[in-house]
Write a structure and sequence with these properties.
By secondary structure, the protein is of the alpha+beta class. The chain has 4 helices and 3 strands. A 3-stranded mixed β-sheet has the order 1-2-3. Strand 1 and strand 2 form a beta hairpin. Helix 2 crosses helix 3. The longest helix has 20 residues. The termini are far apart.
Amino acid sequence: MTDVSEGAQELRTPVAAVPPGERGATRIADRVVAKIAAQAAREVLGVLPPDAAPPHATVVVHRKAARVRVYLELGYPGDVGARCGRVRRQVADRVGALVGLEVPEVAVRVERLHLAAEYGAAQGRTR
């Protein structure tokens, strides 16, 4: 007859440690990467016009690379190209740092420009 304490002793002995590279894989969903990209765009843009929609993004992840598309609404007048460039750099940096994916492409699409109320009034324009 086997003693119960002998069985408990067998359970306490550690099984051979599995090397970290062989323990499994972590997969981050595309929509999670898209939320990180949209948040990174919001960080750069700061305060948006009152009726502007917040930035949103779509992402396609293939192996260790993410292709990102960011959709924005910006205030006008302003340097649209410079703002898009800052968004592009911030999204690539944040996705790379937080998720560990390479970001070879960040496409920025400006869906709408919002005319500043002061600018329109100064030009004699009304809505």
